[in-house]
Amino acid sequence: MATPIQTEESEHSFEPSAFVLGLPKAELHLHLEGAIAPETVRELAHNHGRHMAPEDVTHLYEYTDFTGFLRCFRDVTKDLETPEDYELITYRLLQQLASENVRHAEVYVSVGACLLWGRDFQQIFAGMERGRERGAREFGVSLYWIFDAVRHFGPERAMQVAELAAELRGSSGNVIGFGIGGDERRAAPELFGEVYEYAARQGLRLTCHAGETVGPESIWTALQTLKTKRVGHGLTAWQDRALLAYLLETQVPIELCITSNLRTGCLHHLQQHPLKTYFDLGLLVTLNSDDPAMFGTSLAREYQIAQDVFGFSHAQLKRLAMNSFQASFLPEEKKKEYLRHFAER
Question: Is 185 exposed, middle or buried, given 0-12, 13-18 or 19+ CB atoms closer than 10 A?
Answer without folding.
Answer: middle
